[in-house]
Amino acid sequence: MANECSVLNPECIAKKGTPCPAYNAGKNCWEYDWMPLFNQMKTEDKQQWKQFMAEKCPQCTAFREPMKKMIALIQAS
Prior knowledge:
single chain, mainly alpha, 5 helices
């Protein structure tokens, strides 16, 4: 089910009006390939995303195992 993460997570950023690339692509956060977007970000934006993903994603009710791998890749970048 596409965008299941936004349904499962009452605190989803997409519900709050913040653009979410996964949501906009019709994918769940754990299905979306975040690396191309991440690699295009400015250094300060990368740091914010790293922090957000490390702190918020594991606490999310929609968190799935594949997202752990993506977070690890992003943290290593």
